[in-house]
Design a protein that fits this description.
The chain is α/β, with parallel strands linked by helices. The protein has helices spanning about 15-20, 20-25, 45-55, 65-80, 95-105, 125-130, 150-155, 180-190, 220-225, 235, 250-265, 270-285, 285-310, 335-345, 375-395; strands at about 30-35, 90-95, 115, 135, 140-145, 145-150, 160-170, 195-200, 225-230, 245-250, 315, 325-330, 350, 350-355, 365-370. Helix content is about 45%, strand content about 15%. α4 runs parallel beside α12 and α5 packs across α11.
Length: about 400
């Protein structure tokens, strides 16, 4: 089947965060939103059909995850990531962000330290601070527009109170797909220092330019011993509203600790339709995903060429994965407050503001390019017009 990613689907008045909360988040409703990390592509038909089929049964009672649910995850990880996992390694969460919070509760105590690597997905910060743990920044290094882990700084930041590191892999927002060598260095440090790594791999299916994702836990036996891997179909298949994700934890002690927290909070049952959609996605999603990635890569290349030829003042940080692109506006010389106002008021666009991603976010904005190309073109043209007017006004 050939899927149409050029199709524009109206999302207004569906309680859609991206569209229906523009006024609350940006102060105006008449802007083009390219912020929230969901797609403007339709959720695949085979997933919708599976949900409708289940919805047609007249009782929505208590539901468990059957063996076929775990089998779908096992199949997908083998097919897409060459990772052979055991059904006993699989646990559940109603989302990756809840999983991060439960991991902090499971593996640390109040007052202990958790490391994050900003600029990074902002719920990493609250997952630490909201539970009275100490947040430690191991800020990424930017060198000539490429971000790298600062391993020397990481070693210095670890002490006896440091218990956990939250890894974004692939990284949101800077688009890095961490290499095997980088992951090996990270594991070496964390294994020696007895640091558990929570590897958020929610974007692992979203590869650009033919790249291949390496699950952290597959690097070595030492990596598997200290890694809790978080996955979900929500970004891959546009299912964020259905609240269903999985954790893969081969270390039995780590898995039991996590599941104890899951049981205490009593949120392990999950959402009936989330379970149904996740199983359908992982059983039938390869062709749709392959086609979507071709389109997404086309959007990325279109955007790169547009910036290079028509808005060279703004730099794209080269992305290796995800549909979230990190844009460098520092050449405009604006304060963060002024830059935010410029994007909203003068360009009529809703991006994610760089400072919300923590240290290293100043002067940047994050754009979501998982949308029909005609909409992306319109957004870039609006930005081009605003930038040209800005520099003409300065002259």
């Amino acid at each position: 089947m050939i899927y149409d990613f050029d199709k524009i689907t109206q999302r207004e008045n569906t309680s859609c965060v991206k569209y229906d909360l523009r006024k609350e988040f940006f102060g105006k409703a008449d802007l083009l939103p390219l912020w929230v990390a969901d797609m403007d592509f339709e959720t695949p038909d085979f997933i919708r059909e599976a949900v409708i089929e289940r919805a047609n049964h007249p009782i929505y009672g208590y539901t468990f995850r059957s063996a076929s649910f775990n089998d779908s995850i096992i199949r997908w990880m083998k097919l897409r990531h060459a990772w052979d996992i055991n059904k006993d390694w699989i646990s559940f969460s109603p989302g990756v962000v809840p999983a991060l919070n439960m991991a902090v509760l499971s593996y640390t105590r109040p007052g202990e330290k958790v490391i994050v690597q900003p600029p990074v997905y902002f719920p990493f910060f609250t997952a630490v601070k909201n539970h009275d743990r100490e947040l430690v920044y191991n800020q990424l290094r930017e060198t000539n527009g490429r971000y790298e882990m600062d391993f020397e700084d990481l070693e210095k930041k670890i002490d006896d109170k440091t218990k956990l590191l939250l890894l974004c892999h692939p990284h949101n927002p800077v688009g890095r797909l961490w290499s095997k060598h980088e992951l090996e260095q990270l594991v070496d440090i964390c294994h020696r220092k007895k640091i558990i790594i929570i590897s958020d791999e929610i974007h692992s299916d979203l590869m650009l330019n033919g790249n291949m994702h390496i699950p952290l836990a597959t690097i070595s036996p030492q990596a598997a011993e200290i890694t809790v891997t978080c996955i979900a179909p929500s970004k891959t298949f546009n299912l964020a509203g259905l609240g269903s994700s999985a954790l893969i934890i081969s270390n039995e002690d780590l898995r039991k600790s996590y599941e104890k927290t899951l049981d205490h909070i009593h949120i392990g049952m999950g959402n009936l339709f989330g379970i149904t959609s996740m199983e359908a996605a992982y059983n039938m999603g390869e062709d749709w995903l392959d086609q979507m990635l071709v389109y997404l890569n086309g959007n990325y290349e279109f955007m790169k060429e547009f910036f290079e030829k028509r808005i060279p003042k703004i730099k794209i940080i080269e992305a290796e994965a995800t549909y979230l692109i990190w844009l460098d506006f520092r050449s405009l010389g604006l304060s963060d407050k002024a830059l935010k106002e410029f994007v909203i008021q003068r360009a009529g666009l809703g991006f994610n503001d760089g400072p919300m991603f923590g240290p290293g976010g100043s002067g940047f904005q994050r754009i979501n390019i998982a949308l029909p190309r005609v909409m992306l073109k319109k957004a870039l043209e609006q930005l081009e017009k605003a930038v040209n007017e800005f520099f003409n006004g300065k002259e």
